[in-house]
UniProtKB/TrEMBL annotation, chain A:
Subcellular location as annotated: Cell membrane
GO cellular component terms, A-Z: plasma membrane
Name of protein: ABC transporter permease
Domain of life: Archaea
TrEMBL record, chain B:
Alphabetical list of InterPro entries matching this protein: AAA+_ATPase, ABC_transporter-like_ATP-bd, ABC_transporter-like_CS, ABC_transpr_LolD-like, MacB-like_ATP-bd, P-loop_NTPase
UniProtKB keywords: ATP-binding, Nucleotide-binding, Transport
Keyword ATP-binding carried by entry: yes
UniProt name for this protein: ABC transporter ATP-binding protein
Pfam families xrefs: ABC_tran
Top-level taxon in the UniProt lineage: Archaea
Domain ABC transporter: 10-232
Alphabetized SUPFAM superfamilies for the sequence: P-loop containing nucleoside triphosphate hydrolases
Gene3D superfamilies per the UniProt record, alphabetical: P-loop containing nucleotide triphosphate hydrolases
Organism annotation: Halobellus rarus
GO MF annotation list: ATP binding; transmembrane transporter activity
A GO cellular component annotation in the UniProt record: membrane protein complex
Amino acid sequence: MDPRESFTIAARSIRSHKLRSALTVIGVVIGIASVVAFATFGASVESEIVGSISDSGANNVYVLGQPADEEGFEQALQPVFTEYDIARLSEIPGVEAVIPRGSIPANSVTHRGETVSIQGATATTPAAVTNETLVAGRSFRSGADETVLNRAAAETTFEGNVTVGDEITVRRTDETWNLTVVGVVNGTAGELPVGNFGPQPQFYVPADPYYQAVVESPGANARQRAYPQLTVVAVPAETLAVTERVETYLREESDARHLAPSGVDLVARTSGDFAEQISDVIQQITRFVTGIAVIALVVGAIGIANIMLVSVTERTREIGIMKAVGARNRDVMELFLLEATLLGAVGAVLGLPLGLAVGWAATRYAEVGFAFAPYWSALAVLVGVLVGVVAGLYPAWRAARVDPIDALRYE
Amino acid sequence: MGQADADDVVTLTDVRKTYDLGGTVQALGGVSLSLPRGSYTAVMGPSGSGKSTLLNLVGGLDTPSEGRVTVGGRDLSTATEAERAAIRGSRVGFVFQTFNLMPRLTAVENVAMPLVFDGWDRSRRRERARELLSEVGLGNRLDHKPTELSGGQRQRVAIARALAPDPELILADEPTGNVDTETGERIMGLLGDLHADGHTILLVTHERRIAERAERIVHVRDGVVERTEELID
């Protein structure tokens, strides 16, 4: 039958029951809006985090030990990368620097008589502090009683700000260090991207003399410092090639391959790998949460089905009349299906902007950039239409099967 | 009667109809009848005699359990649902006792509705509907909804609707049953005019006075034709 006429009839029947049509549509709006909101928020968080990872050191190759049965960021903490390994890695073509990183347990830090407890300090080399990350001062020197703080440590840990030139005292179980603050940084080179999210206070100290994890290096035949993690800074254009070379070295020549306990794999990861893994995790969470929102959409669909069944019953006589004047079962089916589809489509068209608005508000609240995915818009409308079609199928089929003789007798 | 004639609009050949309502109920028990083109036939009988079933079969709303029903040469007993719908929409026009207008549609839209299913385009549908409404004297009620019309006016809309696809046959089921006597007279006058214009009419009624407006009366009782009475004007 004439599609325009079908549309007119369906629209008129929706309009003739304004309140209940509106309530039904609201059900779909809520469903579509929650799906869009969660999906948008997830996509925004993902793009924010992935963006920040990619920004920070795309040319960093992170070398670490990883339990063989783990994916993601699980990191073995045994110090297995020796100074011999660091020296050998530095000789690999395309490598600009190798920055080790180890943690030193500590109990507290005192600044101008104020003492706060800490987890520990981070031991690294002066190269970790670069001009790009320095906010004030300079890097520490190896062998000196100096320290560099990140902004969280300098600005929020103590009542008063810690400034360059101040003295701090770090207490460990068996010793006390008096250190001079020589620099404040906003992150350090070669930091694992996963560590960046929360602004945790960090105290950086030179590995020499403060880092004391020492092992027997098979390569150097001497006792050397060993670290749980290294960052190889590559010439940007060669990052991938360097990653492969580093992996080959780890597998075939490193001290670490001897020192790593069984069940720990030595891996070289780029920030792209991390971004990918984080994306996977966020996408899984987003899918899960969006899946829950889909429940709201299903409820909306049931609302449509319910109201359409009521409508079929109410209009039994009209169906009979239409059949008496020549409507085929198909025409009747089409009309009711169209009506349900319209309800779904209107719900989708209204739910989409609402969902985007809620998603946007959530990104403001979480302080991440809003990522608008245009295909979500199309998908939302499509899903709304589909919801209408699916919800309308059974009622429409019931309508099509109405016996005109009974229907015309129906009061 | 019962002999197939090329110029018969409708022929029923030994038509039986049984319903399964717990037990088997026989509504029609072997009816043969033919309606020549341009004829005006009244089917009369008490309620439960099977006259409505007969009308439903001829109108393609129902299918016979046995026997053949042909309308315009088309055998309805072998027609698919869609084919019967097409016959209802284009070859047959129904006029019901309770009018059966679509409540949300205007007079013009009601009259144009069969043409929607018959595939006419919009402007032609409207034009045809306006013409017909003017013919039945409702040229000034085109955009009124059924609730804004009197019983007699509604039945005239229904008659205009029945005429819309220019059907070969008009089926009227107690068309005066829901209107007062004077309005009923006018409705019957309108049907008489249609007959005079060459339309074939099958009227179902239980009132002798109404049945007498036809050319002949087929008396139905207990699902069979009791007798046929030819009326001379």
